[in-house]
Write a structure and sequence with these properties.
348 residues, alpha+beta, 5-stranded mixed beta sheet, 13 helices
Length: 348
């Protein structure tokens, strides 16, 4: 039974980690709120606060637990998020304010957490209105406490107040630190995705046209990189026949397979990119002409052997002071020269 619970817990946390930043952050807010409610309820019993204080916290923990379970089961996510936020902000906070020390108690730290993180989980006009309404609520509580201090339950001893505030401050700092960590991690992940989208071809995952052109232009402008550097343009022979005969899905599969073969053969010795439907570009540095011939022959033979498809390639070595457009044009002429020779070959 313990093993089953452990496995279920692992699945739940794995699901949370794979969720979007909003749901992930909200789930951890619920976990924090649940633990804080249980701990706060026990503390209030020990500190001698009125029963309403710990009953409110224990009922809150039950509500939070139900919300968490429903959320992990994808039950009305938006309704759960908003109803829980409103319950925490506009039911629990006022109840705890009067029953747990008011402005001099630990409820202030819960207010701090909610005013910071709650807007992140609301949408549209609610996101803008909530902080204003919640701050108005807290200000109203402070004013009411100022004029009616007898309505707010007080601590039995300075030591009890110190322990309550210290522990809740620690809870708050740990939670906010963890939430900041989640935000930073999510930002980095999203940034890496955006970089990947901006530099890589969506179908084949090799570099895209923009990246390759920028990269090659940057490299050939460097005097150190020009020597023994070359551009290889590779184009399928009669690729239209594949699409017309077997369909576009099969055509995509062939393009992906060929891109993998080319990338594997090139390895770390150069960059591979897709610059058109069935056209690839390779940029190689510090490669001798004989090695280049062997490499091109190996690529063409491997593709033909594995997919029964022929490729043609045009190769042009970079010259000092040469413009990118001139280099590409040179390789393009060599490519069409190879095709005119009968295809399934390359020309330098």
């Amino acid at each position: 039974m313990i093993t089953d619970l452990n496995e279920k817990a692992k699945l739940i946390f794995k699901k949370i980690e794979n969720a979007g930043i909003e749901i992930k952050g909200y789930c951890y807010l619920l976990i924090f709120s649940f633990l804080a409610s249980i701990f706060g309820g026990i503390s209030n019993i020990i500190l001698g606060f009125p029963p309403v204080s710990y009953i409110t916290l224990f009922l809150g923990s039950i509500f939070i637990a139900i919300s968490f379970i429903m959320l992990t089961r994808n039950k009305n996510e938006r309704l759960i998020v908003e109803s829980t936020m409103y319950y925490l902000c506009y039911v629990m906070i006022p109840a705890l304010w009067f029953s747990s020390g008011g402005l001099r108690g630990a409820t202030v730290y819960y207010c701090l957490v909610l005013v910071i993180v709650a807007p992140a989980f609301l949408k549209g006009i609610k996101r803008m209105l909530h902080p204003v309404l919640f701050i108005c609520l807290v200000v109203s509580l402070i004013i009411y406490e100022y004029y009616h201090p007898e309505k707010v339950a007080s601590y039995n001893s300075p030591e009890g107040r110190f322990m309550d505030i210290a522990t809740n401050m620690a809870f708050t700092v740990l939670f906010l630190s963890y939430m900041i960590g989640i935000l930073i991690k999510s930002y980095r992940s999203e940034h890496e995705k955006l970089v990947g989208i901006s530099t890589h071809d969506d179908l084949t995952k090799v570099f895209n046209r923009r990246f390759m052109m920028d990269y090659i232009e940057d490299r050939i402008s460097s005097s150190d990189a020009v020597e023994n550097s070359c551009v290889v343009l590779i184009d399928f022979d009669d690729f239209k026949n594949i699409n017309d005969t077997f369909g576009h899905l099969e055509g995509d599969r062939v393009i992906i397979t060929v891109s993998h073969i080319i990338s594997k053969k090139i390895g770390n010795s150069g960059k591979v990119g897709r610059i058109g439907g069935d056209e690839f570009i390779i940029f190689l540095e510090n490669i001798k002409k004989q090695d280049l011939k062997s490499l091109c022959t190996e690529i063409l033979e491997t593709v033909y052997r594995n997919e029964n498809i022929s490729l043609s390639a045009g190769i042009c070595f970079a010259r000092k002071g040469q413009q990118l457009s001139e280099l590409i044009s040179c390789a393009d002429k060599k490519l069409y020269s190879a095709k005119s020779r009968g295809k399934n070959c390359y020309e330098i």
